[in-house]
Design brief:
single chain, alpha+beta, Aminopeptidase, seven-stranded mixed beta sheet, 4 helices, about 30% helix
């Protein structure tokens, strides 16, 4: 089940974030800010009654920016991330998508490419010194 997150989900989101990312983990205040932005939507993915993933997107006019997305490590490689992303992509059919992902995150790069995202540039030092990101886009599909 996918649902829009509430402020009550902050601890769940932080747990998943901290377990999923070694670098550039978001703070509580970063997540809290997302709940106050009109263009930001935070989603929770539940599997067998347990929250196992989250996603933050920015809906701007006819574009969507994927801001952050994670599935708990023990639930990765089971198709859940793909299922979660498929549902959200369908929700925003007709929108152009953008995202940044670490050049070394081959699993995520392959996932996004499977959804027809194309590389459109490199952002130097995006995640810190010598930690570059790939900028990707997906054209609107109508």
């Amino acid at each position: 089940m996918i649902r829009v997150a509430t402020l009550d989900d902050i601890d769940i989101i932080r747990r998943i974030c901290d377990a999923s990312f070694e670098l550039n983990r978001w703070s509580n205040s970063s997540f809290l800010q997302e709940f106050s932005k009109d263009h930001s939507i935070v989603y929770i993915y539940e599997f067998e009654g347990k929250a196992v993933g989250y996603m933050v997107i920015w809906k701007l006019s006819l574009t969507v920016e994927l801001v952050t997305f994670a599935i708990e490590k023990e639930y990765q490689n089971k198709g859940l991330g793909k299922k979660f992303f498929t549902t959200i992509i369908k929700e925003y059919k007709g929108y152009t998508w953008f995202l940044e992902v670490s050049v070394s995150n081959h699993v995520a790069l392959n996932l996004y490419k499977s959804f027809d995202f194309k590389e459109c540039g490199i952002i130097k030092n995006y995640y810190g010194s010598n930690l570059n990101a790939v900028r990707m886009t997906r054209d609107a599909i109508i």
